[in-house]
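Blinded run. Sample ID left blank on purpose so nobody reads anything into the name before looking at the predicted structure. Input follows.
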Amino acid sequence: MAQILITGGTGFIGKHLIRRLIKTGHNVTALIRPTSEVKDTPSITYRVYEGTYASVEAVFQKQSFDTVIHLASLAQYDCSPEQIAPMIETNITLGTLLLQAMKQYGCSHFINTSTYWQHYRGEAYQPICLYAATKKAFEDIIDFYTLDGTIRAISLTLYDVYGYEDPRNKLLNLLIKNRHVGKSFDLSPGEQKLQMTFIDDVVDAYIQAMNFLPNTPKNHTIYGVYGQGTYTLKDIVAMLETLTGAPFSIQWGQKAYYPFQIMDPSFGKKLPHWEAKVSLKEGLSIILEKEAAS
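Blinded prediction complete.
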């Protein structure tokens, strides 16, 4: 049984990951905001992050941890001036405070979450928005905290994660939710390629990273988590139409691609000993089956 501290546990990926960790016998503590809505789950310990190092340190003073899994982020393509400070606080400051506490209290394994939005036109680093820039800035901070060899860290670069029980306002979810009401959608021309990775496969990747960390060099390594191929947005909608047996009302080309749209995602080194098991067709079928049963 590993002692695991996780941030972002109330989000889409976090909920699925916590469920798997508990099922496989691990002890999970979730670091949450004072405003987070949580269910009273006896198998999870909740600790509150107040935006200070003292509140992070208090968590490590109460309990020793083997691994910290850092999922929390403020992910937005557009960012207003009022959102800059919260984005930096969530995407940079929180993780830095965690790393400082890990070093102080002897926790040596850290799993971070990165994004392919850092790689416009396949560049090694070219952020398409402030969110992507903050994720890279935090990766550089991880490099510093792993320099002396006391912390081993892996950053997992995620692509387009989808799946069941997803409350996010994503296009795929909106299409499935509104498929019976004939709602019309104004979309881009739809030629951008997406790398869709099913939620169960993504959870597998975090579990594999956790198991793999003790055998990695004492530094910070970045790995990709991506599935079985890329599909254009039009391909994805067509597949969903085939599975549901009904066409969607979509006006292609009514919206422009957003600035710095990634038309064809690039891929770095994949996480060792991990492969995506669920194809896009299988994943969409699972979502539809679970929704029909609910």
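Unblinding after everyone has recorded impressions. The mean pLDDT is 95.
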